[in-house]
Amino acid sequence: MTSQPYSSFAVYQSGPLTVIGFGRNRPDRLDLGICRDELTLLLRTTKCQSLAVDLTNVRFVPSGMLGLLATIPKLGVELMVFNPNPEIREVLEITRLDSIMRIETVPVGGMLAGES
C-alpha cells in the first residue's frame, strides 16, 4: 500500500502490479486533469509495470476517463480492467479498447471492493 494520498482513486496495492479503484468516488464526477496528474505520479513513484483498474460497483465511465486509460499502455505499462459491468464491457469492445487492455473478472472482497 502506498502512503501517498490520492483524491481521485484509492490505491489497493502498489508496486510492479498496482491496483487502483474508485472506492466511493464516481469516475464521471472526477476532475480528469487531477486524475491524470495523480495517476502519472503513482505510476512513476511505484515503478508500476502493470496497472489494474477495479471497476467493481462502477456503473458509468465517461469517455474522458476511457481516453485517459487508453494512454497507459503508451507509457509501457500493461493495463488491466477488473470487473466492468456488462455495459462498460460492451463499450470497451465497441471502441476496441479491449485490444489494448486485459479485461478480467476477479473475486471481490475487502480492499478490492472499496471497503474499509
Automatic annotation (TrEMBL):
This is STAS domain-containing protein. It comes from Planctopirus hydrillae. Residues 36-104 form the STAS domain. It holds the Pfam family STAS. Coiled coil: none annotated. It comes from the Bacteria.
